[in-house]
Amino acid sequence: MIYESHIFKSKVNSVVSVGIAYQLCYGGVNHPLNVFEATCCLQRGHYLHRKKAFLAKRRQETRGASVHMKSGLGNLWFYLSQIYEQVPRVYDKGSEAVSLWQVRRWRMEVFKLPLKRGDLILDAGSGKGAMSDLLRRFGADTVMLDASLNMLAQGNGDRVQGVFERLPFRKGVFDHVVMGFSLHASIDYGLTLGNLRKSLKSGGRIFIVSIGRPSSRVKYALCLAYFEFVVPLLALLSTGKEFPLFSGLKTIYQNNPENELVRCQLDEFFETLEFKEMALGTVFKYVGVVAASSSQQRSPLSRRSPWI
Question: Residue 235's pLDDT is what?
């Protein structure tokens, strides 16, 4: 499917250059916008890229910089992005095992959204497209966004490589946004949530299920032991020699802000409809809506276009 050009911020044909493009402005350090040029064919997605060179350049630019952020992985994102490039071949098996076979049930919560056939939905941090596959069965149209080309290559439908901190979409083009275990992989929560809010239509909803961090010290310690000892064992049994790829889950858990802090930040951008902790707080579900009074005016152009 080729989206019409008014979805994007710039003119788009069947082949466009989007790629990873974002600006870091933390602690007074204003890095220039660097565009990782990736030729992306939106007709079922084909990508040519120079990702290693881009990441090396970005690491060099950010090394030694005084970086301050409210929440997010920050520079740890570069370490974890390499894991995400290697994990696709065992991602499904490993995710099911380390979640004690609950991950699909948690994702199925998305069907509590007021979905309609033909809704245009952004699957932000789509990975291989688990959330998109569920939504398409309901009749929705989805656009998969992920920073990992290897993840996207194993998906179906319309796919775009990019990061949350610099979305390549026009304002107010999506009916809903879903994030299935991807918010915790943000570089900066504030930029991520702000950009996702801008991409939603008035009254559009955002559904998030993500790795969390309980406020209770006892729960935190128990869950940390789970990530340190039980997760590697489950990953080993389900993926064999690939089990070290799931070591990043512990890093994400340790560097996550507490769930209550995440909720406060979500409240800054959306009207909260539901916030629920699960699995002792290691997972949370959030549903929010863009209030009509605070959303951007709808574009008179067709609703069928999501790109910058």
Answer: 95
Secondary structure E strands in 147-219:
158-161, 174-180, 200-211
| End-to-end CA gap in the chain | 16
Q: Which helix (H) or strand (E) holds 164?
A: none
Strand order across the 46-48 sheet: 15-17, 39-41, 46-48
Residue 138 is predicted with a pLDDT of 87
CA 222 – CA 229 distance, rounded (Å): 11
Instruction: Identify residue 273 by its one-letter amino acid code.
Output: L
Q: Strand locations in 93-156, DSSP E?
A: 120-124, 141-146
pLDDT at 8: 52
CATH code of 72-216+245-289, in short, is 3.40.50.150
The pLDDT value given to residue 306: 53
Question: Phi and psi of 243, rounded to 5°?
Answer: -60, -30
**Residue 291, burial from CB neighbour count under 10 angstroms (0-12, 13-18, 19+):** exposed
Q: Which residues face 145 on adjacent strands?
A: 124, 160
Residue extents of the structural domains in the chain: 72-216+245-289
**Consecutive H or E run containing 235:** helix 231-239
∠ CA 34-35-37 to the nearest 5 degrees?
Answer: 150
Q: Rounded distance, CA 131 to CA 110, Å?
A: 8
pLDDT score at 47: 33
> What are the mean pLDDT values of the chain's consecutive 10-residue runs (308 residues total)?
42 32 26 28 34 46 41 88 90 94 95 92 96 93 94 92 92 96 95 96 96 96 97 95 91 94 96 96 97 51 46
What is d(CA 260, CA 263) in angstroms, rounded to the nearest whole number? 5
- Token digits of residue 105: 């049930």
Task: List the structure tokens of 113.
Answer: 């959204």
Please report, as a single letter, which amino acid is at residue 279: A
* 156 vs 308: CA distance, rounded Å: 21
